[in-house]
Amino acid sequence: MAIEHPCVRLVFTSITGSRMRVCDLGPIARDPGEYSRFYRGISEKLCHE
After folding, report:
1. How many whole angstroms from its chain centre is CA 40?
2. What is the pTM of this model?
3. What are the domain boundaries of the chain?
4. Who has the most CB within 10 Å: 4, 10, 16, 42?
5. CA-CA distances (angstroms) from residue 8 to 21, 24, 31, 46, 49?
6. What are φ and ψ of residue 29, in 5° steps?
7. Quick one: DSSP state of residue 21?
8. Counting beta carbons within 10 angstroms of the beta carbon of residue 30, is it exposed (0 to 12), middle (13 to 18) or buried (19 or more)?
9. If residue 11 lies in a helix (H) or strand (E), which one and from where to where?
């Protein structure tokens, strides 16, 4: 599967073959709460484009 988005750097199938993994370029989180907010925002953006 190809994803063309400026933030996406790498897409691959998990080792079990059951999921797709996406490595993206995003802001650096300073704490777990900030990481969760960034993750949700980026994943929602990628899922709705």
Report:
1. 9
2. 0.56
3. 8-47
4. 42
5. 11, 4, 22, 9, 13
6. -80, 140
7. E
8. exposed
9. strand 8-13
CA quadruple 30, 37, 21, 2: dihedral sign: negative
d(CA 34, CA 49): 23
Over the stretch 13-28, which tens digit does the pLDDT of each residue have? Answer: 999 999 888 888 778 8
For the cut 90, the answer to whether the pLDDT of residue 33 exceeds it is: yes
Q: How many CB atoms lie within 10 A of CB 22?
A: 16
Q: How many C-beta atoms lie closer than 10 Å to residue 14's C-beta?
A: 9
Cβ-in-10-Å burial (0-12, 13-18, 19+) of 27 comes to exposed
Q: 23 by DSSP, 3-state: which?
A: strand
